[in-house]
């Protein structure tokens, strides 16, 4: 572990000597992640990307890519593009990245089940903004907006999200 790893603890996520409150999946932490279970997968997950909405927030890092209205994330386990960023038109199950609410204004992408994915093992474990304190996610890790932006600005190459086993 390094100070640039985000480490989930019972009190929040530790990063660079600070502790940040967070929300995790409504299904708790799991060692056997499955698509749609609402759980956050245990393990060491490299942070492999950053996405942001340029109409709502500035890029916190040069590594951040702009998302637009046609950007989606495939959660169709039966499609070869499962657990990949895709664009409209896409006629399989997916999640919109360009949302009406602010949850995905800034997204850190983890390497969970990526880039080579196992169908049904779960897609899109993101780090994103929470709805409100304590409100669970569908499996992602979520933070208060200001904390998420601070974390994104301070990430380094090789930063990881570390979730202890359940």
TrEMBL record:
<dbReference type="GO" id="GO:0004180">
    <property type="term" value="F:carboxypeptidase activity"/>
</dbReference>
<keyword id="KW-0133">Cell shape</keyword>
<protein>
    <submittedName>
        <fullName>L,D-transpeptidase family protein</fullName>
    </submittedName>
</protein>
<keyword id="KW-0961">Cell wall biogenesis/degradation</keyword>
<keyword id="KW-0808">Transferase</keyword>
<dbReference type="Pfam" id="PF03734">
    <property type="entry name" value="YkuD"/>
</dbReference>
<feature type="active site" description="Nucleophile">
    <location>
        <position position="140"/>
    </location>
</feature>
<dbReference type="GO" id="GO:0009252">
    <property type="term" value="P:peptidoglycan biosynthetic process"/>
</dbReference>
<dbReference type="InterPro" id="IPR005490">
    <property type="entry name" value="LD_TPept_cat_dom"/>
</dbReference>
<dbReference type="GO" id="GO:0008360">
    <property type="term" value="P:regulation of cell shape"/>
</dbReference>
<keyword id="KW-0573">Peptidoglycan synthesis</keyword>
<dbReference type="GO" id="GO:0071555">
    <property type="term" value="P:cell wall organization"/>
</dbReference>
<feature type="active site" description="Proton donor/acceptor">
    <location>
        <position position="128"/>
    </location>
</feature>
<comment type="pathway">
    <text>Cell wall biogenesis; peptidoglycan biosynthesis.</text>
</comment>
<feature type="domain" description="L,D-TPase catalytic">
    <location>
        <begin position="1"/>
        <end position="164"/>
    </location>
</feature>
<dbReference type="InterPro" id="IPR038063">
    <property type="entry name" value="Transpep_catalytic_dom"/>
</dbReference>
<dbReference type="GO" id="GO:0016740">
    <property type="term" value="F:transferase activity"/>
</dbReference>
<comment type="similarity">
    <text>Belongs to the YkuD family.</text>
</comment>
